[in-house]
Amino acid sequence: MAAHAVRHLSVQGAEHTYPVVIGPGVLEQALPAFVAERGFQQVAVISNTTVNALYGDLADRLPGGYRIVVPDGEQHKTLDTVRTMYDELLAHGADRSTLVVALGGGVIGDMAGFAAATFMRGVALVQVPTSLLAMVDASIGAKVGVDLPQGKNLVGAFKDPLAVFQDTATLSTLPDVEFRCGLAEVVKSGLIGDPSLVDHLRQRGPEPVAEIIERAAAVKIDIVQRDRLEGGVRAYLNLGHTFGHAVEHVSGYAWKHGQAVALGLAAAARLSERLELCAPELTTEIDATLRQLDLPTRYSGLDPADLWHTMRHDKKWRDGRVTFVLLKDIGQPALVRDVPEADVITVLDSLREET
């Protein structure tokens, strides 16, 4: 396949199969053609201030298109921000025939998706991720939602989009730190479902980018099609996230999601080793892979006890017990419950650097 060819995947959702279209220039041609073919007469393009300045003119190429722009940042991923989306939709005369286009990174995809899932009990949604992290993870699988003061993504829904359009040309404007954040989710995908993807990253780095997006997305698609509502194997997608979400929250979101997930992957490997699920060599390999991609494997300035306390508000905490996704080996994830607090604290202490 040519390096610049458009790649096509598909996802079997709850009610329909939807395409995932990956490649340069899909915002210019494939997306407007798709919207026109579906006959939409009003399209609300929801983005943040940063993405709107770069790609907001997409609304001008869509039938009845208009922009809804919200502040940039995880700290704005709240019910209050979604309320402003509802207000804007109503001000533009939106009804159940309106299409919502979520244009941006994972935060926008989650919030605009949640707005689409709940406005008038549901309107059509198209996901247009512009960050690597959103392309390989957040835009696929139908999860949408917002944060509460107590933790991440505690209010949400499942909302299948009509399609996902991933224009790799948008990555050219992505800050390097955000690109690195996306690589954390690529590493996670490899660790849970594609060992050769981890080898690829070690040997060739994150190139060609369309290939690593396709391979990471394929891992997620396979898992969500087997377990749409996270009753079983879909939980594997949370590798590194129980630790990572706690780091984000305790740091007041000074840690970006991908950075926190990278640290969480390092922590999950160490906890796996401590519980004798995996060989020490696995921890070494995961640490080396993350460092090679310039992702964090250590932290400072956070209290391990605070991190543990925050984990108690994680959605995976049930009946007073937290479920960790750990590793027996690359490509062999495992769900482990009843992990002693002392073991988690020991792992967190081992990753802490003195300030």
Describe the structure.
By secondary structure, the protein is an alpha/beta fold. It has helices spanning 30-38, 49-55, 79-91, 106-118, 132-138, 176-193, 195-204, 209-226, 241-250, 257-274, 280-292, 304-311, 341-350; strands spanning 7-12, 17-23, 43-48, 65-70, 99-104, 124-129, 143-148, 151-158, 163-167, 317-318, 321-329, 332-337. It has two domains: 7-173, Rossmann fold, CATH 3.40.50; 228-350, Dehydroquinate synthase-like - alpha domain (Dehydroquinate synthase-like, alpha domain). Helices cover 43% and strands 21% of the residues. The radius of gyration is 20 Å and the shape is globular. The protein starts with 6 loop residues before the first strand and ends in a 5-residue tail after the last helix. 47% of the residues are buried.
Q: Summarize this, please?
A:
By secondary structure, the protein is of the alpha/beta class. The chain contains 13 helices and twelve strands. The chain has helices at 30-38, 49-55, 79-91, 106-118, 132-138, 176-193, 195-204, 209-226, 241-250, 257-274, 280-292, 304-311, 341-350; strands spanning 7-12, 17-23, 43-48, 65-70, 99-104, 124-129, 143-148, 151-158, 163-167, 317-318, 321-329, 332-337.
Furnish the topology, listing elements before pairings.
Blueprint: E1 7-12, E2 17-23, H1 30-38, E3 43-48, H2 49-55, E4 65-70, H3 79-91, E5 99-104, H4 106-118, E6 124-129, H5 132-138, E7 143-148, E8 151-158, E9 163-167, H6 176-193, H7 195-204, H8 209-226, H9 241-250, H10 257-274, H11 280-292, H12 304-311, E10 317-318, E11 321-329, E12 332-337, H13 341-350
Parallel strand pairs: 2-9, 3-4, 3-5, 5-6, 6-9
Antiparallel strand pairs: 1-2, 7-8, 10-11, 11-12
